[in-house]
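Action item from last week, closing it out:
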Amino acid sequence: MRRSRPYQYLATGEANVIGVPGAMGFGVGICPSYYLPAGFTPLPGYDIRGHVNYGNYQYEDGSVMCWIPKFYYKVGTGSNGLSVNVVDIKGGASFANTAAANDAGYAAANDAGYALHRAFIDGGVEQPGFFVDKYMCSRNAKGSGYVASSIRNGNPISMSASHNPIAEVSSVSLGNICASAIQAAKGRSGVNGALDAASIFHCSSRFQYAALALLSLAHGQAVASSANCAWWQSGKAYPKGCNNNALRDVDDTSVLYISDGYSNCGSGVADLNGLMSEISIGVTCIAASKNIVGATKANPCEVTVNAHGYANGTIIRIAGVVGMTELNNKLYTITVTGENTFTLDGVNSSGYTDYESAGMVTTGTFYAAKQATRMKDFTPGDTLATDHWGATGVAAMMEPFSPAFKTAGGGVVSQRFGSGTNQVLSEATSGDGWLLSGLGIPKDANGMDTTGTDLFGKDLYAQYIRNELCFISCWRWDFGSYAGVWAVDWNVYRTYSSDSVGFRCGAYLV
């Protein structure tokens, strides 16, 4: 999605074509003129593959946004025409419709079983594409106020009063918390940066980040040099980034960051590996905790929680135990043994320290935005029917799903993407597996471990159960290989404040 020769032009591209993995210009494209919203202007060279501005548009506040055309994808299983973990991408015009793309009997065997990426469904309809900020949002003057804009070399906004605070954006009233990114996005089209309830802009969704990650993987797998992929390295199909805590890339210290992004960043979306963690809407969790009153030294370990009400197979997180601290900060699958007791599957605590006191068990239900939901309709509270957080908004705007967590024997928080030769993403064209791939997370626990694989950058999969979850992507400048286009954090929450968390905006047109 970035290239090394921005002024070696090729022929003018066709509208709304995602391109071919490995070829110049892949991953962004030309927004059809009849879709282009008011306030957007194509940048010079936007329609020329190989130009630094290919697929790039500027909004009236100065924000540069990239157009990502609709695409279908296929994940290799080893028996469906593609090797395990190989990803192929086809443009939106490759099939008569999504049903034809999904059809396992469509055309030749190698053209079978393609899925529409979830990022191209919004408001219950298939979208021709979406706009996403080229750069992370920075504070920008607009009239007598301030707006969150995607501007090259801008100093990224953070969720902290100590560093480019989001509270200084005119549309924000909630202060320096993660939820404010929803308000900030809605101010881009507002008068003097004020909140615009009718804005087409939203804080970018996890679906959109997952689409960008998948494009990076397909592109990196399809090239064998940096000719059409400036960040290419053998065996590492992911972008470079500012992630080694010294303004360089952990894999390539010749890359130097001066401010935000490469000094010559190319046509695609910048800084998806490191720089700052990025808020990603469309996913949350409603969680609750109960007190632990006992834990046995046994195989398996039995935990006592009075009137727990849990069912077999429930996934829990344990924290705060005094004495038997080996249980803390891990996820477990449980088997109920009584009204007040359950065992931790695969956990032999015979050699653990004696339990003394305290501890909490947290359980939660995870939710993703319904296909009928429009990302721009989310509001940042936890009480209204349109709110991204809280039981009322979740019931109206979201639906439950089961994430892939590693719990056998006690799953530590810090997992990483990839596990040996195991398949990571689901090949499903519908259902639960399709949703997980649309969120850019593994199909099951076999797709992660504590070391990960180079193919997925060894990116962090920070599994957690957190009430009012605010999903975080990419991770920050000092996390080395933990950071990356695939990285996800299940631990951050709605009111979290940090100088290492920022965001970018997206927009749908239909």
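Closing note: The helical segments are 98-102, 180-186, 206-222, 391-397, 431-438.
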